[in-house]
Design goal:
With 299 residues, the chain is mainly α. The protein has helices spanning 9-15, 20-44, 50-62, 64-72, 80-94, 98-110, 129-137, 139-153, 164-190, 194-217, 240-245, 252-257, 266-273, 284-296; strands spanning 234-237, 279-282. The chain has one domain. The chain is 64% helix and 3% strand. The longest helix has 27 residues, at 164-190.
Length: 299
């Protein structure tokens, strides 16, 4: 992993300061937004507003992914315990166990855009419009996640990026997740709250996956297979609401170049790195327009 940045160490140290306050403000805002959109879903009943309410709730829920992502880097808070609480919260909502995800994601950072070693490239990125549609749908995500968690629960941890010392943790984590989900479903049925469970969690995380897939696909797709982080990753300029919802991760070159810098300092890092970023896009619509043009040959 290399990157062509020469920022003075004193600036990196200053930007790398973690903050429990900043993390708590961020996650509190996200949870309040989740409660607000959940209230909209329940208030909509079965009216024509229900699909809109579910879509809003879905977007807010699935971007708990960004909180989990920041937490498994241990940069969301100073406190390691708070990081793990948020990682588990996001993981339970998204069916993404945090210990396994940390192993996967750190390997992605170590081998970004290396076709042989980056686990994000284990499944090739879309090469055609039909593949793009299937990818964005989230079908691959659900198949891979559920089968992996089932395999892990039975002790089968074969992922090369999971070190041997972590395999017991991954197995225990998968079993805990299945136990929690089983308990949740059983309680919802027993208390006749299964419709609320479907409307507030199950349906939204399915509906929300395409939004998350579109967001994640923009991070490296179309970037070269090189080791320089200012070239193999894309930063997308977007509005303040999206940046807040995604914990500033649209500043993705910045995050990859210096993953120890917390989310709240990434705008400052962007101001320093912007002139060196090769793939700097103006909005997600532009990113996916470029991707679709490349896939369809309509350049």
């Amino acid at each position: 992993m290399t990157h062509s940045t020469t920022i003075p160490p004193v600036i990196i140290r200053d930007l790398s300061r973690r903050s429990d306050v900043a993390g708590l403000v961020q996650i509190s805002g996200h949870l309040v937004a989740s409660c607000g959109t959940g209230w909209l879903v329940l208030s909509a009943g079965y009216s024509a507003w229900l699909p809109i309410a579910i879509a809003l709730h879905a977007v807010v829920l699935v971007f708990l992914f960004s909180g989990e992502h920041e937490a498994i880097h241990f940069t969301a808070f100073c406190s390691r315990k708070l990081n793990w609480i948020v990682a588990w919260l996001g993981g339970l909502v998204l069916v993404l166990p945090p210990a396994w995800f940390r192993c996967f994601h750190l390997a992605h950072h170590r081998w970004t855009q290396d076709p042989d070693r980056d686990p994000e490239l284990a499944r090739p990125k879309p090469q055609s419009l039909p593949q793009y549609i299937v990818w964005v749908s989230g079908l691959f995500y659900w198949r891979d996640r559920l089968t992996a968690m089932l395999r892990h629960a039975f002790g089968g941890v074969e992922d090369a990026f999971v070190p041997s010392r972590s395999r017991t943790i991954v197995v225990r984590e998968a079993r805990s997740f299945w136990a929690i989900y089983g308990t949740l479903v059983t309680a919802a049925v027993a208390l006749n709250l299964w419709q609320e469970l479907l409307l507030l969690w199950v349906l939204p995380i399915v509906v929300g996956q395409p939004f998350l897939r579109l967001y994640l696909l923009s991070e490296h797709t179309g970037c070269p297979f090189v080791t320089d982080m200012t070239q193999n990753t894309r930063t997308t300029l977007t509005n303040a609401l999206v940046r807040r919802l995604t914990w500033n991760m649209p500043y993705h070159v910045e995050h990859h170049a210096h993953p120890g810098i917390p989310f709240h300092a990434l705008p400052k890092l962007h101001a320093i790195l912007a002139p060196r970023i090769r793939h700097l896009s103006n909005g997600y619509l532009n990113v996916h327009s470029e991707i679709l043009q490349e896939l369809t040959g309509c350049n």
